[in-house]
Amino acid sequence: MSTKLFIQKRLKRHIDVRHEKIKPHECDKCHKSFGYKNNLKRHISAVHDKLKPYKCVLCPKSFGDRSTFQRHIKTVHKNLKPCECEICHKTFGRKHHLELHTNQVHKKLKPHECGVCQKTFGQKKNLVKHVDVVHKKLKPYECETCHKTFTCKWKLEMHDNAVHKKLKLYECTMCPKAFGDSSTLRRHVKTLHKKLKPFECDICHKTFGRKYFVKLHINTVHKKLMSQKCKISLQIFGRKKDLETRINKVHKKITSHECDICKKTFTLKHHLEKHIIKIHEKLPDRCEVYNQLSEQKNDLDMHVDMVHENSPSLYVTSTCESPAERHERSTGIFQALRNFLTKVMNMICGRKYSD
What we know:
Blueprint: H1 3-19, E1 25-26, E2 33-34, H2 37-48, E3 54-55, E4 62-63, H3 66-77, E5 83-84, E6 91-92, H4 95-106, E7 112-113, E8 120-121, H5 124-135, E9 141-142, E10 149-150, H6 153-164, E11 170-171, E12 178-179, H7 182-193, E13 199-200, E14 207-208, H8 211-222, E15 228-229, E16 236-237, H9 240-251, E17 257-258, E18 265-266, H10 269-280, E19 285-286, E20 293-294, H11 297-308, H12 323-349
Antiparallel strand pairs: 1-2, 3-4, 5-6, 7-8, 9-10, 11-12, 13-14, 15-16, 17-18, 19-20
């Protein structure tokens, strides 16, 4: 083959794959297609044969080929994203991702339509995943430890690293919390620290940090959709998560969250966190009304009941009230005590003592 013919052949293949989007090489197992035969081989090796020899030393991820591994280091850890969008100036690590962003976000191109619900997508792979997850209810990826199933492989890996391997490499710089993946960390910073809640309920205008919580709020609060029913107690819940928590805590008595210090177990993770803060870190409770510190929770409860709920007591000594209020309350207590003692003395000696 002459050099000229070889160049022409490579040029034609480049035009077919890159510009005409022709992908003649199809995977027999998942029917994903590729423009180059080598890409198909790498796909089979990494995805189906589970061969990922290139392991990242900075995070738990591993890769099937060297080029993907190097690109991961540059874009994720070194944060090198040379491809910038001219419209919104968002940057990307690959030119292909910039093109997808421009077509979907700015040009609003969504050529792939679902035949069931007519929802459209910018990428064919997103359409396939939508059909599998939403309509076919497929969750093919199962955790070998707890048998929980997931729609995507990366979600399974994220679950295994965070829940079972206890790998939480993404630390928040504003609080001590750490997370198993970067997306959860970003959502944590936006909703808790930056107080960003861009999703609003059209009915009551309450705002939420996630779109999922808006749908859940509308279904449970406004539409009164309580579809999750406990078969044991017949109690109805709006969320499947709340039903599972109820069954595990009340009926199965499952306490899967264990304190590493004292080995006490809890059903809910946030109960474990509260236990560690209160018992082991010795952080005092705080009065939500006046931020008055109290070392014991029963002291705090007594403080709130007596001072802020207007419960009468002879033993209240509070810095939360003004001198005038304290004088008025003390006068009332003294008068009540004087009336009581007067009645007691009348009963004992039979003499009539006036107030």
